[in-house]
Amino acid sequence: MSTNRDRQRAAARARLEREMADRAEQSRGRRRRNTIIAAGAGALIVVLAAAWVVIAVTSGDDKDKASADPSASATPTKCTWLPLVDPSASASPDPETAKNTKDVGMPPASGEARTGTQTMTLDTSVGTVKIEVDTAHAPCTAESFTYLASKNFFNDSVCHRLVVQSIYVLQCGDPSGTGFGGPSYRYAEENLPTGKRPAYGAGVVAMANTGQPASTGSQFFIVYKDIAQLDANYTVIGRVTEGLDLIKKVADAGVIPDASAPAADPSTGPSDGKPKTEVRIKSLTMSSPTP
Q1: The pTM is what?
Q2: What is the pLDDT of residues 149-163, one digit of tens each?
Q3: Is 166 left (phi over 0), alpha (psi -120 to 50) or beta?
Q4: How far apart are CA 191 and CA 280, in angstroms?
Q5: Strands of 167-172's sheet, edge to edge?
Q6: Do the Cβ atoms of 189 and 235 come closer than 8 Å?
Q7: How many CB atoms are located within 10 Å of the residue 279 CB?
């Protein structure tokens, strides 16, 4: 016979499962209008596991959803790689996230470079894009890219989202091309552009997150035009030094609106969706750090 406490626990588990299903469904419908990129981190993936999004467009209410831990702007003294699924959690992750995760292991626990810069080279279907990575101020992000690049994680992946109004970004880094994908780990935000106006100017390359602390993964966005309204909640990994003109041409060609988004979603329309000009990353490589 079950005790009253057992029945309470069973009821709590049932409520959690219903919440998970409801939130996963809601996040699919909202993923084009809430925070620029989302994925889930640690135990949060159990409840929040959702699509990668990137930024709140203009709504003041949505800004709160994109808040990150202000302390994350400091460079962490140690890179901590958090498993996407908490092994101690009893619930399963969101099916979309689980299905689109590309597990290539985790970066080393120590030994990451903490000085100088690196060059990230994207060999794409529209040409070569080069990014100067700020290894000194974003060492964990740089280490993650270096590790994933060594595993060919980004090769033959498409940039799945382009936004040409309010926020001006090309979003890449999801091998599944769905907006739900990423590696099997997450890590803390760093090098946040607090106090800078605009925080994300043309040429900046920054990392997407779920809007929760320590939820950065592999998805990144390239800013091709200054963004006036975007809070400093996303790790700046570096700046485009070659090929920004190529990204602008892609933006000029427009987008294919997301047909799967509900008609009631105010962000659906000609300004947000897949780029009409496909941008396929043939390969992504990282140079060794230089002083």
Answers
A1: 0.76
A2: 999 999 999 999 999
A3: left
A4: 28
A5: 157-158, 280-286, 118-124, 127-133, 236-242, 204-207, 220-223, 167-172, 161-165, 272-275, 255-257
A6: yes
A7: 23
